[in-house]
Amino acid sequence: MNTTNTTTRRQFQLGLLALPWALSLPAAHAHGDQHGKAASTVVKEQKPWGIAGEPGAATRTIDIRMTDDMKLSPNHLEVREGETLRLRAINKGKVMHEIVLGTGADLRAHAEMMKKHPGMEHDEPYMAHVPAGKTGDIVWTFNRPGDFEFACLIAGHFEAGMRGTIRVKPKA
């Protein structure tokens, strides 16, 4: 038996073994899809910049306008440690935009990944993907003081300057 046939047979067998596992994975949403956060349970995972908040606990709503000139307005937010906000992303443009919360390093790394994989699929409570003319909400509890960021990570938007800063001030 030649080596090529043996290798091909092994690869096929491994693929068959992996198939049940792959089929058991949950379906993900692409950036172009309308994400259904309301229909799914939000997983609350502590991040350096906070944790997903309960909609009823939001003490204020901040509208963040997104435009096709690659601007976010406002582009700086001041928050008190422990405050839960509803960040309402309003897409005033004609193309898809998003807002993603994180550390500067996390957002830069994610932006690089998005350039390599523009159709990357994901949906996290610290992200809002917003089609043209629509709105999307992030409800977030900023339970750690520090300087963080928010940005649109769709390929090219981050590099064009579509980002802002968040300063979380320690409790008084």
Strand percentage: 25-35%
**Please, how many helices?**
2
Radius of gyration: 20 Å
Instruction: Describe the main β-sheet briefly.
Output: 5 strands, mixed
Helix proportion = 10-25%
CATH topology: Immunoglobulin-like
Determine the N-to-C terminus distance: 76 Å
Helix/strand-derived class?
alpha+beta
Order of helices and strands: HEEEEEEHEEEE
Shape: globular
Strand order in the sheet with the most strands: 1-8-5-2-3
CATH class: Mainly Beta
Please tell me the overall pLDDT: 83
Number of folding domains? 1
Given as residue ranges, the uncertain stretches (5+ residues, pLDDT < 50) are 14-39
- Architecture (CATH level 2) name: Sandwich
Q: What is the CATH superfamily? A: Cupredoxins -  blue copper proteins
Strand element count? 10
